[in-house]
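QUALITY CONTROL LOG
STEP: pairwise intake check
CHECKER ROLE: data steward
CRITERIA: each record must contain a sequence immediately followed by its structure tokens, with no blank fields

ENTRY 1 OF 2
RESULT FIELD BELOW
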Amino acid sequence: MPTQAADILCRHGQVVLNEREAILQELQQFLNRLLGFLVLSASTVPGEYLLPRVMASFHSRYPGVKLEEKITDSSRACREVLDGRSELGCVGARIEGADLQFHRFAEDELVLLERKDGGSHFYRVDQPRSAGPSAVSGTGVGLRNPDGF
């Protein structure tokens, strides 16, 4: 037959063991989910067209993380990350000399367009090319054709 002291120790010991298990379970739940605040700085195009979808997907996966997006120009977005005011940045141009690591995240494509019937008042696109105003015939990009009216 246990002594009175053993009885007290056993009763309180069981409470401590149950509490320990509850603490471990709660910590495990906490560690398996991300919580906190994430500030992103982005230049205009990524900030307005690319990141909203990415941020919505991230938020649905990690609802405990509050996201804030700052839309600015590439130079200021880099400065925000360098100064620690943003954790991440997304820009369309590398800033030379910035003490940052740049990682390719996405690519976009810019295209010129015109009406299929060729009735555009703008100069016609002769051939699609990857860059430069030489893809457009005439004397300038985006100038209205004076004979088009």
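ENTRY 2 OF 2
RESULT FIELD BELOW
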Amino acid sequence: MPLSMYLPSLMTVFGASFIAFMSPGPNFVGIVSSAVQNRFNGIIVAIGVSLGTTFWAVMAVTGITTVITRYPGAALIMQIVGGCYLTWLGIKSLRSTLKPRSAFVTSVSGVETPFRSFTKGLLIQITNPKTAMFWLSMVSVVILPDTPIIIGVLLVVGTTAIALAWHLLLAVAFSFGRTRDVYLKARIYISIVFGIAFIALGLRLLLWNVIAV
């Protein structure tokens, strides 16, 4: 089959992926919560999230995701780890409201180390079983037993590029001076919002099976 025959399916996956990236969720909250404090940290979180996307794309293309989803225990572990991590980020955000504003302003440029920022983005993405399910469904649109390897490569590279472009744009957009000034003035309320959002997402992930019933 000519490679051009796979183009409509690839475009479908790219479009669906972009819509998924734009949807508010753990990735959005994770990037924005760091970007409003420090642009560099926000960018590093965005890179971590994007490489998490690459991880799941590769797992799905190679068929490993299919194996994982066949074992409820593996999915459950991911669900618990992801839910606990998001909940911990929420608690951490709520605790930050106890800091004096003066202490926060002097330390805002160094809230997170690059490693912590990268790990934060990566863990948010790879511990979300919903992401695994999404990629499993998306890859099934393109990858068949006789699909050329180059199509799988194009899928991984394309979705990674889209993820990087969107997440970096998000990080930069929320890190401009005016945005940061607003954040510093209303940081307690914003931190509360982020904290509640993280905890809600974490509990939703922990209770995913219960809610789905």
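INTAKE CHECK: passed for both entries
DESCRIPTIVE NOTE, ENTRY 2: Residues 3-212 form one domain.
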